[in-house]
Fold this protein.
Amino acid sequence: MSKSLDDLYEDYRPGWSLPGPFYADPEVFEAEVEQIFRPMWQFAGHACEIPEPGDYFTFDASGDSIIVIRTDDGDLKALFNTCRHRGSAICREARGHAKRLVCPYHNWTYDKDGALIAARAMPEEVDKSMLGLHRANLRMVAGLIFVCTVGTTPDFGPVAAAFGALLDPHDLGGAKIAHSMTYQLPANWKLIVENHRECYHCPSAHKEYARIHYDTRLSSDTWKPEISARTEACRVKWSAMGLDTGNVNPTSSFTGAWWRANRTAFPSGHVTESPDGQPVAPLMGQFTDTDMGTARAGTYPNFWLHATSDHATTMRLIPMGPDSTLMRADWLVRDDAVEGVDYDVDKVIAFTDRVNREDRELILGQADGVRSSRYGPGPLVMDDEQRVKHFLDWYMGKMTSPASLTDRPSAIARSS
Amino acid sequence: MSKSLDDLYEDYRPGWSLPGPFYADPEVFEAEVEQIFRPMWQFAGHACEIPEPGDYFTFDASGDSIIVIRTDDGDLKALFNTCRHRGSAICREARGHAKRLVCPYHNWTYDKDGALIAARAMPEEVDKSMLGLHRANLRMVAGLIFVCTVGTTPDFGPVAAAFGALLDPHDLGGAKIAHSMTYQLPANWKLIVENHRECYHCPSAHKEYARIHYDTRLSSDTWKPEISARTEACRVKWSAMGLDTGNVNPTSSFTGAWWRANRTAFPSGHVTESPDGQPVAPLMGQFTDTDMGTARAGTYPNFWLHATSDHATTMRLIPMGPDSTLMRADWLVRDDAVEGVDYDVDKVIAFTDRVNREDRELILGQADGVRSSRYGPGPLVMDDEQRVKHFLDWYMGKMTSPASLTDRPSAIARSS
Amino acid sequence: MSKSLDDLYEDYRPGWSLPGPFYADPEVFEAEVEQIFRPMWQFAGHACEIPEPGDYFTFDASGDSIIVIRTDDGDLKALFNTCRHRGSAICREARGHAKRLVCPYHNWTYDKDGALIAARAMPEEVDKSMLGLHRANLRMVAGLIFVCTVGTTPDFGPVAAAFGALLDPHDLGGAKIAHSMTYQLPANWKLIVENHRECYHCPSAHKEYARIHYDTRLSSDTWKPEISARTEACRVKWSAMGLDTGNVNPTSSFTGAWWRANRTAFPSGHVTESPDGQPVAPLMGQFTDTDMGTARAGTYPNFWLHATSDHATTMRLIPMGPDSTLMRADWLVRDDAVEGVDYDVDKVIAFTDRVNREDRELILGQADGVRSSRYGPGPLVMDDEQRVKHFLDWYMGKMTSPASLTDRPSAIARSS
């Protein structure tokens, strides 16, 4: 790269798309890992994936493999998947069950909290308590597990409050994953976030989505009265059911600096995200009515969720490099629903998988185009892309503010 | 790389092959893109590929995707394939037909000249005339399309004159592509050009080529009288037919600084580039005689052509990195020739495809060898490799002269 | 890399594993090539692979392809596989037979010593004696061929003496390769060497190996008397047979700075490295007794060998990058043994191939783990990993001492 990062940041013009190097430059990507991914809470997975003590899954947090495990007292812990002896990975599978964590190389053995409990032939004088697995921070809200690998973490309190109020009625923690799918996108992760943060492309790209949702009609004078009336009717109904209705609105805008949580009404006659808007699985949680709208939540930089009365879909991004991102989609249904009897997996995933594939084509086309030497920032269309600006402004703030106080590895407590 | 580029250029010794880093160093490759590929005219494709208004093909000009399109008035335009909104590629296929150029992402719509004609929800105050697709320069001669992506271009006049005089009788603009083939060569592009610029390797490597052409016999005292007599006889005949015979000779040397155009007689009894030297397709253009020799033309850095009375072959290089190059070969025959009736594709391509494959083996072997830490420039054998020296001298001149005045992107006109 | 190499070397703490960048950083890898691989003797292959004049194989010495060839007088020569004309590789196959070395590009022709003997159209005044193939240094001991590509080489004398004394009775030079296998390991080469230099992992990882060898019982008070008695009994027997017994011991430690050679007794009842410890091929060399223990030898950085009375296994490492290594295993049996009659290839390779595959899993797990940002050096367990410390201390000495006097390419003699 010919420009320094600082000069590059100067090129950012709020209300315009990013300069090209932000989507391609390895140095920018490294800075993103340090300034954005490591210091932020990243969505790792679901509490319902690891219901029993010893159940674990691994999560790639910017190149750091993290073991998320349930301990004997039912807590969740996040441990670095790196033996304190000579560094071997301990858990080699994406998920599993372990009574103890035993390194396959020399059988150093850790308990579920990460404490070292056995190391053959280790001299007595070595202090085992200094050799526990390194720990990452972990927070769980509404069955969603977030991990932060550095010592000082962003305040999770407001997210816990908002996500809890919105999502607890869906009981995602007591659900099960009906299906998972990982999309490999040879594209910068920000192109995926930007794509998700605007519906300017929906009328032409997502005809099915546009039909069952109001999203593409929000600025239409024809539709405004109906949308208002329908939203207000839903608010009254949901409030009577005891749901938190503090953020019932159709806009999906961010309510916090790096997170959002709102509930959005469907047009009458549609109740869930399926091709025809009709239910595809049994009611979740304590719901008794199918018409619960879409609970929508998300956190920068790697997570968003849509939850309806019968199922929920979560998206998790893992950036692999400047032009490579993995996007995992999980579809959740209630835990006691029986596949083939209560729901058909193909029907549960049809709607969102289609949206994802439609977006994939758009994102890859953009990834190709922004590689051009003649690409330069273009003007965002503010009526439809103000949320892209929100993301880019937040992003640029993170990139240009010192992370020096928050990302010191030394600040992480060792397991003892 | 331990040496600076300037130090490296100092290592060049005219009459010797290049130092190893020229074939491997990413910094050299980047400099080549800026000093050679972007500022020069690159062969992009054939006018006959896009006969109708709205027909287009895309061309990768050093990482810049260029749309070459025929407009309603029959002109050819070269447009950067990057939407002025958020940079998406507009044309995703290698060729196609479009009434208008519509970005697949948000449907911004451009006419065939690149002017922006529609952008949904765009505020009135935004000046659409500033948001046309960026244009590249384009020249066409004898049906061959050349593109230059920077503002100030090398003078194309002499090439247009020489190529026109040589090639217009072949009517390549009114021909059709009988077959295309892309060879992937894990080798530096200069190894391919060097290979093409000498026939020192022909006696052992291209026995078929050596048999039907005089190229390997030019310095043989035994053959000189026949070659002179045959060349002179052809000149007289072709002149009587009204052909330009200003550069009828057997040497294939460059006649301009970065281009060449000559006509070469076949040994008696051979009339085209086929295994037995006999015709493989109907006569092209206005020819009435099969014995028209080989029209040979080329431009540094990415193009050469051989045209005989019945078909023509063009080669286009696209360098993908220091050790990766795509070489596309197109075989052209007259437009109204019917495949399977008037010509057999296998027979049309047999001769040149064989030469290409033989060269591929040699080039890959050289690419392996020059990677050695002990490789150093070797002496060119001037009787047979003087044209390699011509290329290397030209190349080094471009690399060491400032391109600063010619490659400013700002100098390119925006479409309006 | 944020740290300079010098700062990184400062981070090394003897008795602990290496800091993470040593296993991943391209700059460290480049320094290793210059400080370790080029200046050291690398095992290239076996004399028995090229018994006749003109037989050759090629060896990738840190990116330099080397032709190892037998000359007409039976000598072995190591030549750089790069034509002195324009650098093409000359031998394109991994092994073959050549009366003369003829460059495939322009047929420049060299004799088996590398002297240029023909170059078509070369002017008389060019001094062909200056254009022979560049030579590398070569040493052979006990049929093992070592190559060094720089001018000043480490003293090979002690290795020749020790390897000769230990291995000459096995007659590897007169053997044949029963089978070769190349393992591709996406791991740093040092992880492979470290793995081979300790048996701390053997009890859990190599149960078959642990059963037929004493290696895992050396520090067991229960086993010490038997091991001593058995070793002494073998020493007496082998001495009576005329074998050199100067280094009969069970420890496999390095006896020189960068090499080792010892003979180790098997537990009674086992005589070779096979699943049941029983012979899998005819006796090699002049042996008349199957119970000859394991001759074990090795050199830093790329070679080790185990030889028993009936077969031998050699390992050769070729580092391809910071996280990629090729490991070739060769299994040798006596030359006149007939496959399917005197030996079964599957049985010859079963034991060591299994150990190699078990190690492969461990090494890849470690390669994954040391990528973590939180990986840091861990304490070696000295009772079992002192030989890892030996390797790391040697390695760090090479990395921090100037190789400036030994790795000048100019010091290599040209063939004349």
User: Anything to note?
Assistant: Chain A has two domains: 42-148, 159-397. The mean pLDDT of chain A is 94. The two ends of chain A are 44 Å apart (CA to CA). Chain A touches chain B through 27 residues (CB under 8 Å).
